[in-house]
Every structure is written in structure tokens, then in C-alpha cells.
Amino acid sequence: MGLTLACIVFVISLTALVVSSDWFIGAAEKIGTYMGIPSFIIGVTIVAFGTSLPELATSIASVMSGSSEIVVGNVIGSNITNILLVLGISAFVAGRMKIDFDVMDVDMPLLFGSAFLLYFALYDLQFTYIEAGIFLIALVVFLMNSFSDNQEIAEVEKGDKPTIITYVMLVVGALLVYLGAKYTIESLTEIATVMEVDPHIIALGAVAFGTSLPEIVVSVKAAKAGNHGMAIGNVLGSNMFNTFAVMSIPRFFGELTIPKDTLTFDTPFMLAATILFGMICLTRKISKWEGAMLIIFYLFFVSQLAGKI
User: What confidence tens digit (pLDDT) does each residue in 77-94 have?
Assistant: First the structure.
């Protein structure tokens, strides 16, 4: 596979991965509604998992193909992209985003905790089975906290009965997610080999951006519709899911390679972005110009990655 063909395959497979994950989310949400599952639970499980499905699929595929260094780059790059680019664009498009709930009460401390836990877990450039298990436990704690805040468990109005098309979309979506992830990683590896670039760098930039497209679509649509809480919650929830699930689950498929740059630049930058996220949420509103500042930080991040190519 030449460089041109690899680039074409990369774009097509990444697009298929993002689109198919959207099909999977939509179909699963309709089935869940029909079964009487509360919308909140659907949101923190199906939607939260679904928007992080591209990251999870590509990470598992990278381990199985022998390019496990892509996992940590995908997780850290996606978390940075979610905060700086997704939230930045959402705030800039909305003009001003208001936070109607006290995000600093529990949610933001949990996000800070996840970021610092990831940093210390990677400090020895290893990620063990025990650490992966702890991350999964932390994911359960996060979900339990989300469930405990739910007020609509008692009575649930069932949705319309899913059509055969819904079930077809669920199966086809899952299949395309698998194929999209497989060929995304294969083409990425080929591009990195031909250009003599560390796959970890491409994962931090191109793969992280591509797999964050669902978050961009969901958050920007929510921001334009005035549903600012959903836009901000999507970023926060996706980062939690990336850290706890996308980092831990691939570990059970094989050893994870942690590049040295992870501790010198990547993780510290992610920590800084997370702290910045918390700081701008203190006033319970995010202005258009704060959104522009976040985008500028993202451009700086990309420029640093470009300098390593």
C-alpha cells in the first residue's frame, strides 16, 4: 500500500468509523427507549459509550495489530481535543454558554481525579492489569454517581416499537465500526512507516481529531440549540469514558507501549487543559472569547505535534 492509497484508506475508514458509530448510537437509543429504559440512563450509557466508541474500537484494533502505542496517544489526544476544540467551538458558536448545574460539586472533581490518576498510572511507562482493573472500577463509580442523580427512574414512557431497519442499522453499525477501526489502524501504520513518523504522534493528532468528531457534532448541535448543559456534559462524560474505559479495556487484549513523550509533554498538557476547563467553569458560564482561547490552545497543541514530524 503506497502513501497516497494509505491516506485515502485512512480518510474513508475513519469516516466510516464515525458514521457507523452514529448509526449504532441512534439504533441502540431507539431500542432502549422502546424497552422502557430511562433517557438519562440511555444518555450516560449508550450515548456516552457511543461517542467514545471510535476511540475504543481503534485502540483495541491497534493492540491487536501490534501498534499499542496508539492507545495512549488516542486517549490523551482525544481528551485534549474534547476540551480545547469541541468545547471551544461550542462556546464560540453559542456566543455564551451557561451552566445550569453545579459542575464543580462532583463532576469536575471526578474529571480532575481521572486526569491525575492517568498521569500517575503512566508515570513508570507501564500500564498493568491491576491498573486497568482499577480504572474499570473507577468507571463503575462514575456511572453509579450519574445514576444516583437521576430523578426519572420511577415512571418511564416507552417509545415507539423499533422497525426492522433499526435492528439492521444496529448490526451494520457495529460491523462497520469494527471494519472502520481495523482499516484505520492499518492505514495509519502504513502512513507512519512510509513517512517515518511515530504512530503515537499521528494518534495524538489525526486519529484523536477523527474519533472526536461525534463529540464535536453532538456538542455543537446542543450549543446551537441552547442546550449548553448537554454540550458541556458531553465533553466531561466523554473524557471520563476515554480515560477509564478506552485506556483500560484494550489492556486486556495485550501489552500497552507507553512512549516517553507521554510524560514530558502529552499528559502534562492534558492536565493543564483539564485544569483550564475547571477554571472557566467556576463562573458557571463560558464566553465566546473563552471559547476562542481554547481553540488557540488547541492550535498550539497541533503546532507542537507538527514540529515533531
Answer: 999 999 999 899 988 988
With a CB cutoff of 8 Å and minimum separation 6, the contacts of 98 are 228, 284, 285
Q: Where are the alpha helices (DSSP H) in the chain?
A: 3-34, 39-42, 48-51, 53-64, 69-81, 87-94, 107-121, 129-148, 164-195, 199-202, 208-211, 213-224, 228-241, 261, 267-280, 288-306
Helix (H, G, I), strand (E, B) or coil at 229: helix
Q: How confident is the model at residue 2 (pLDDT cuts 50, 70, 90)?
A: confident
C-alpha cell at 20: 457507523
Any idea which residue has 514530558 for its cell? 264
Instruction: Look at the alpha carbons of 117, 64, 263, 212 in this order and tell me if their dihedral is positive or negative.
Output: negative
| pTM, full prediction | 0.81
Report pLDDT digits (tens) over 90-139.
889 888 887 766 666 677 888 999 999 999 999 999 999 999 999 999 99
CA distance 145 to 110: 10
Strand-pairing partners, residue 285, are: 98
Domain count for the chain:
1
Instruction: Provide the domain limits for residue 90.
Output: 3-306
Cα–Cα distance list, 158 to 17, 25, 47, 162 (Å): 30, 18, 18, 11
CATH number for 94: 1.20.1420.30
Distances (CA, A) of 271 to 19, 126, 157, 280, 289: 30, 19, 41, 14, 21
Helix 3-34, helix 164-195: angle, nearest 10: 150
Q: Is 19 helix (H, G, I), strand (E, B) or coil?
A: helix
Q: Are 192 and 198 in contact (CB under 8 A)?
A: yes
Alpha-carbon torsion (106, 110, 111, 116), positive or negative: positive
